[in-house]
Every structure is written in structure tokens, then in C-alpha cells.
Amino acid sequence: MPKIKDISLVAVQFLLILAFFLDIHWFSISFMEHFLWFYLGMVGVVISVAALLQMNLHLSPFPTPKPNSKLITNGAYRLSRHPMYTGILIFMFSFSFWLGDGYKLCISLAILVLFYYKTNYEESLLESMFDDYKAYKSKTGRFYPKF
């Protein structure tokens, strides 16, 4: 049974992503309209789908890892500890800029804050579950590669 914190984090995430797709315009950022943002958004979708497929049976919408899951550190997870979130963030920010939509940009910032908080919680659980998670964390960036 998922914890209340897990359910709450996923509910807020779902509501923010839903809010992103509402057609509300607070202010326009017209100088950002360019198809490069569209293509970058598509890269975000590809990253998220690749990470989703790689998780396969270990996938859960909740931050608490499934029992008997294993730590994945290759493929998309070699570049980022949370590539699904990375792809979602790239998509949301890129489309906010492409559409020149300040409302969507605000929602993107809110989901970034949520993902930061959610990953802190998730990583504390992963560290207690996997002995080698701290080493993986030290060499791999949260949302983007470490250089």
C-alpha cells in the first residue's frame, strides 16, 4: 500500500501536469517563439520514453521503490539519476518557450520545484535500499549529466 506522502506527491505532480495543458494565458513571452524549442521538447519526450521503457517492471508512479527492485545505472540512467523527470522538464520548459506562454512557464517552474523535493525524498529511500546508491549519486547528476 503506498504511503500518504507518495500519494500526495504523485497527486500534486498529476495536477501540475494537467494544469500545464490548460489553455490559460497570463502573459506572453513572444521573443522566445522559435521551432528550436519545439524540437527540444521532442527530445524531452524521447528521453522520458527511453527511461520509461528501461524501467520496465520496476516502474512505479510513487517515489517509494518497489520491493525486489534493482538499481538501474546504465542507459539513460547513466547520464541522469531521474531521466524521466529530465525529459518531462525539457518538454515543459521547451513548449512554454515555444508557445511564448508565461502561464506554462510558471507551471514548469512549479513542477521543477516539486521534482526536486520528490527526488530528495526518493533518493533517501534509494540510499537505504541500495548500498551502492551513494556512489552512483556522487558520479551522476540529478536531472542532467555531471561534467
Automatic annotation (TrEMBL):
<protein>
    <submittedName>
        <fullName>Protein-S-isoprenylcysteine O-methyltransferase Ste14</fullName>
    </submittedName>
</protein>
<keyword id="KW-1133">Transmembrane helix</keyword>
<keyword id="KW-0808">Transferase</keyword>
<keyword id="KW-0489">Methyltransferase</keyword>
<feature type="transmembrane region" description="Helical">
    <location>
        <begin position="7"/>
        <end position="29"/>
    </location>
</feature>
<dbReference type="InterPro" id="IPR007318">
    <property type="entry name" value="Phopholipid_MeTrfase"/>
</dbReference>
<dbReference type="InterPro" id="IPR052527">
    <property type="entry name" value="Metal_cation-efflux_comp"/>
</dbReference>
<dbReference type="GO" id="GO:0012505">
    <property type="term" value="C:endomembrane system"/>
</dbReference>
<keyword id="KW-0812">Transmembrane</keyword>
<keyword id="KW-0472">Membrane</keyword>
<dbReference type="Pfam" id="PF04191">
    <property type="entry name" value="PEMT"/>
</dbReference>
<feature type="transmembrane region" description="Helical">
    <location>
        <begin position="88"/>
        <end position="117"/>
    </location>
</feature>
<dbReference type="GO" id="GO:0032259">
    <property type="term" value="P:methylation"/>
</dbReference>
<feature type="transmembrane region" description="Helical">
    <location>
        <begin position="35"/>
        <end position="53"/>
    </location>
</feature>
<dbReference type="GO" id="GO:0008168">
    <property type="term" value="F:methyltransferase activity"/>
</dbReference>
